[in-house]
Amino acid sequence: MAKESQNKNTGDRSRRRPALALLLVILIAAAFFIMSDAPLVKNARDSLMHRLGYEAIDQENGSESTGENSDDKNSGIKAAEWDTASDIDPASLPEYNGQNYVKVSDGVPAFPDDVYERGGLIKDGGDWKTKGNLFGTVDSNKLTPYEYYGSLDDKGRCTCAYGLLGEETMPQDGQERGDISSMHPSGWAKAQNWERCHLIAWALSAENANPSNLITGTHYLNYDGMRPLEEEVEHYIWNTGNHVLYYVKPWFTGNELVARGVQMTAWSVEDKGEGISFNVYCFNVTPNAEIDYKTGIVTTEEQAAQDARVYVINTRSGVFHYPTCDGVKEMSEHNKKTVTATRTELTSQGYTPCGACEP
Ligand SMILES: [Zn+2]
């Protein structure tokens, strides 16, 4: 009796076996279809998703809206020309109107494929994911954090800096900042209150005295423009352990040596821009001061309003001083030229204010 029932059970089980095997095959095939990165499978999947009406957020197409909006002051800025210096028409840059920064491409970040791929991301239709993952999903452990600093151009100007930033690229515990006071980025002029501005902040990159990462910037650019955005990214990384694609480009016009401004673009990878997503242009200006972007000479409103007075020019170096400056005492009579002029007259003639007496 017991034997018969046992046989009966075995019979049931053997009838169920092919059904289970078929189900298993279907599941494996489905998993392969969803996760495979083979081009043929990927294309089939993308076309299926498309037919189902699934529209992935296409980062590359984010810039399509540029120029559509006529009251957008940034409509003139095109997506960055990667790796190259940017001798762009100043008229195409947004005008400073009191904002620390303005949006580029409606604020939607966009990067070339290479920037994603170097970080370990692969294209998945219009989306990005890490290899072997479900559509558009990212596994932090499969990412490759990196930093890239473009070479200086033939005028010694920074070109761009970008990377996939995370805790891995940040300064490690106890890592000390080096001295950067001897660095002179393009357009650096003494005694004009210039600051050495990192393209990718030390806090994000642990990159300090790298000439490809330092530009001549105003305190306003450094602290009011870039700093809040850098801190947003820094806090996000600390809080989540996630990674952020990050791109910074100084914009120069013509042969000028001081950047007019800096474009900053960032996008958090694991959450697809939920945490961090911006594309902005920060102004390299000082409110109420005029900057000569060719020479780095800054003229404040007060200086511009000064009456003509006596200055001593060193005709050999082209530097001008107050008559009381020690530099004048040391100057050879041969090079000494005393003039009565305004500061603006002298700077517009190409003379440079002394770094010691700061006329
Ligand atoms: Zn002097």
What does this structure look like?
- The protein has 359 residues and is of the alpha+beta class.
- The protein has 3 domains: 2-51; 59-288, Extracellular Endonuclease, Chain A, CATH 3.40.570.10; 306-353, no CATH class.
- Helix content is 26%, strand content 21%.
- It is built from 8 helices and 16 strands.
- A 6-stranded antiparallel sheet has the order 1-10-9-8-5-4.
- The chain is elongated.
- It starts with a helix and ends in a 6-residue tail after the last strand.
- Zinc ion is lined by residues 321, 325, 327, 354, 356-357.
Strand order of the largest sheet: 1-10-9-8-5-4
Number of helices, counting only DSSP H or I runs of 4 residues or more: 8
Return the CATH architecture of the largest domain: 3-Layer(aba) Sandwich
Ligand inventory: zinc ion
- SSE string, helices as H and strands as E: HHEHEEEEEHEHEEEEEHEEHEHE
Return Rg in Å.
Answer: 29 Å
Strand content: 15-25%
Q: Separation of termini?
A: 113 Å
Provide the CATH superfamily of the largest domain.
Extracellular Endonuclease, subunit A
General form:
elongated
Given this structure, which CATH class of the largest domain is correct?
Alpha Beta
Within the CATH hierarchy, at the fold level, what is the topology of the largest domain?
Answer: Extracellular Endonuclease, Chain A
Q: Which sheet architecture does the biggest sheet show?
A: 6 strands, antiparallel
Instruction: Return the average pLDDT rounded to an integer.
Output: 84
* Global structural class: alpha+beta
Number of domains: 3
Number of distinct beta strands: 16
